[in-house]
Design goal:
Elements: E1 4-5, H1 7-16, E2 20-24, H2 34-40, E3 47-48, H3 51-54, H4 71-80, E4 88-92, H5 100-109, E5 115-118, H6 121-127, H7 161-166, E6 174-177, H8 181-185, E7 202-203, H9 219-227, E8 237-240, H10 247-256, E9 262-263, H11 267-273
Length: about 290
């Protein structure tokens, strides 16, 4: 199933389908005003999702800045959003789908296959001449999703901190760093304990997943991009970022390209907090 939906298609489906749940994941690193931005203008009917409190557990050095949420936290959130097991869920943001991809990944990992990302987000909706509304939406609570307490994120592949450290030692495996190039190289590090990257990882900034209009590149274009990084269909590939949020964007881009990828949820915030882990700097993997 194509994980994306464009704005005109979504508008058309909203006119005829009552079971669509719209989630507005307005979040950006360093911007705490997501709820305010949502209240000013959002797709009609969309529910605000608090990424820091509903899509993640509290930060700890041992787990990273955005650990995957507990089962109870995520199940409670899906009930608040009004989700039912049969809902089509469409997620979006206003930052090139960087935050929306986290919600997409979690819902898919929890087993909810009927989850799509609005390609281009709020900007694409507005550019299509479609209406916006202000204020907030409080849906009737739904039954939500029930996760497997033993393996809640089985629907999507993940790797651990230990696996990330050994990932590129095996033949043919690729580890992608989705952060901006200057963070990968260790030139700047605004939030995590040590600058640099996981040794062996390749720089693959999320900006390269998008076309100039803020939408994801076409599947063929994304396949070409990832092939240039040594990733083809069948390659064992994993992605990380600073805290596991925007790496989901790269997992999504890989899926569009027809390539399955694993997510390292703890990402560099967990890795760099562990003084036993080596870090590399510069533009080379090692």
């Amino acid at each position: 199933m194509n994980p994306l939906i464009d704005a005109p298609s979504l508008a058309q489906r909203l006119e005829s389908e009552a079971s669509i749940v719209l989630l507005d994941v307005r979040w950006a690193l360093g911007d705490p005003k997501g709820a305010q931005h949502y209240a000013e203008a959002h797709v009609p009917g969309a529910v605000f999702v608090d990424l820091d409190h509903e899509l993640a557990d509290p930060a700890t050095p041992e787990r990273g800045r955005h650990p995957l949420p507990s089962v109870d936290r995520f199940e409670t959130a899906t009930r608040r959003w009004g989700i039912t097991p049969s809902s089509l869920v469409v997620v979006y943001d206003n930052t090139g789908s960087l935050a929306a991809s986290r919600a997409w990944w979690l819902l898919r990992a929890a087993g909810h296959a009927e989850t799509l990302v609005l390609d281009g987000g709020l900007a694409a909706w507005s550019q299509a001449g479609l209406p916006l509304e202000s204020g907030s939406v409080t849906p009737a609570p739904g039954p939500g999703l029930t996760l497997d307490t033993q393996n809640p994120w089985a629907g999507m592949a993940t790797i651990s901190q230990e696996q990330a450290g050994a990932w590129t030692s095996g033949s043919g495996k690729v580890l992608l760093d989705a952060r901006a190039g200057e963070r990968y190289r260790g030139e700047v590090e605004p939030v995590d304990p040590r600058p640099g990257h996981i040794p062996g990882a390749l720089s693959a900034p999320t900006a390269g997943n998008l076309a100039a209009d803020g939408r994801f590149g076409a599947a063929a274009e994304l396949r070409e991009r990832f092939a240039g990084l040594g990733v083809d269909p069948g390659t064992e590939v994993a992605a990380y970022c600073g805290s596991g949020v925007t790496a989901a964007h790269t997992v999504l881009a890989l899926e569009i390209a027809g390539i399955s990828a694993a997510l390292y949820p703890g990402s560099y915030s967990q890795w760099s907090s562990n003084r036993m882990n080596e870090v590399a700097t510069g533009d080379q993997p090692a």
